[in-house]
Fold this sequence. Notes:
Layout: E1 5-6, E2 33-34, H1 64-114, H2 120-210, H3 221-230, H4 232-235, H5 246-326, H6 336-341, H7 345-359, H8 377-383, H9 393-400, H10 406-418, H11 432-444, H12 455-458, H13 461-472, H14 481-488, H15 509-512, H16 514-526, H17 530-547, H18 550-553, H19 557-568, H20 578-594, H21 596-602
Helix pairs in contact: 1-2, 1-5, 2-3, 2-5, 10-13, 10-17, 11-13, 14-16, 16-21, 19-20
Protein name: Rho GTPase-activating protein
Amino acid sequence: MAANTVYRSDTAGVASVHTANTGATIDGGQSYETQAHHPSQLSFAASSMQLSSTQVDLTEIDGGLAMLLERSRQSLNSCKETVSFLKNRSKVEEDYGRSLQKVAQHTLKMMDRSGAGQSTQYAAWQRLVEVHETLASNRMKFSITLSEMSDYLGNYVKTKEGVRRRLKETEQKYQRAIEDTEVLLEKARVKYEMQCVEWEKLLVRSSKNDAPGGGGGGGPSSALSKTKNVGNAVSGIFSKHKGTTPESLERMGQEAGVKAKMANEAYKRLLHQTNAMRRDFYDAQLPKILASVMGLIEEVDQFLKFSLGKYAYTYESAVLADAITLKPMDGSGVGMVEMVGDIDSKADLDAYLQATAKSGGRINRASIPYREYEMSSVARMYANPKHIFGVPLDVQLERDQREVPMLLAKCAEAVESFGLQNEGIYRQSGQSSQVTKLRNEFDLDAEQVDLCSGSCVSDINNAASVLKMYLRELPGGLIPPAQRSAMLEYFPSDELDDGHNTQANYSRDEDLGLAQKISGLADAIRSLPQTYKTTLAFLFMHLDKVQAFQEFNMMNSENLSIVFGPTIFPTVNDPTNAALDIRRSAKLVKFILDNRKAIFEAV
């Protein structure tokens, strides 16, 4: 800061600038108290802030203050760049210190895990890690110092930017006040001249009327000369006073003279005030502002120099501390080279072999046994599927160790649980995609199929359709051909009606006798293999449960026989008799349903 410049902030918050010469006060947001500077002192050296033989008087240069303000802005920008540098350098040092510390700690931890024990290499590593931890600590301290310097310098710059801004605003306030006064002065001057012109016109007019000849070419030569000087500027005004009397012209001239004098007084008064304000600004206030700005520049530059010097000293101290850590100079410790030189690799290897040989076991030379891969249950299911579609009934029941096919048992259970009151059960078909999906699941592993949830519950016809599909695709059918023919013999084709007399369809059972048919069918069923016999009994027991709910599902024995007749007793490969065989098988199934208990109790 300049030796003759003092900055002070008022406690009342009102800024003022006082000088020993004038005692002038400038209101603003900050106060600066400066001692008076003679204009010869307010100069700026071309190569230095110090006064020298080559100087420029800034008070005499238009834009001198702007030049100083620009120079102060450059100084503050240099401080800002220094703040940014210190902050970034602090971040670099912090990252470096943390990274070095992390690497050192990680290395020591890995050495502990490696089991190096009390080897000389491990001891050297411990000491090297301690050195690196010290280096990391030094860098962290250096980073904190740089951060503090950056914050302090940043706050200083903000403060001085406020000082510069208020000095600039103070100068602008004076300039605006002078400009406003000069505008008022110009208006007063124009008004004064206009009043003088009007007065002059009236004087000329009055002199013409008073001259001999009544306004002709006579009159005093001075009046005529004045009239010629006025020229065209006043020629048009005479029309305003045309026809007026000499007395009126005299009165108007007197009034114009009074107005001209008043305008002259106002003009002189404003001129005096304006010149006084300009003298006060250029002779007193501007030098003080220039001195304050120069003091600000000197202070900022000196503080920046001090901050850079402090940074240089701190950096040198940090580097020196690192050097002393790496190689102590006072003999209090050894350097990194000596630490590494203490490693005895041969002794470390001997100690390791002796320790591991005691704890090591014998080599196992036995052959490695075979270990079969344990597949998951799902994978085993796909690798070894238990097909049931297209597999003979006795083969799949023997394989699965069951009396009744799993598909028949599960589908029957689902229908009995959810579909007994479903209208048209077994007559209506399920959704093709869902039926196909269920078929594939049953053909993979019937035990894993769950019909009590999902789409089967929402549409029980899917399970019913799978059951019918299974019976249709059963190789050899549910009843072998020999027993099938024997059972159909009890229902010859000549007993079938033409389809118009339904009640007479079964009235001819008396021809052979009801007991004879029951006995014959029981004998045929009895001759079946046990697996077929059990499965057939289970199926008809299930269908009997379905027809028990015929008032809800509309599936009586006749409707069920139409659905299951061709399924249980498939037709022969004779298209001419296919329709007749279907009707015979339907009649046979209906008869078994109507007499299920009697037939199967006789088996």
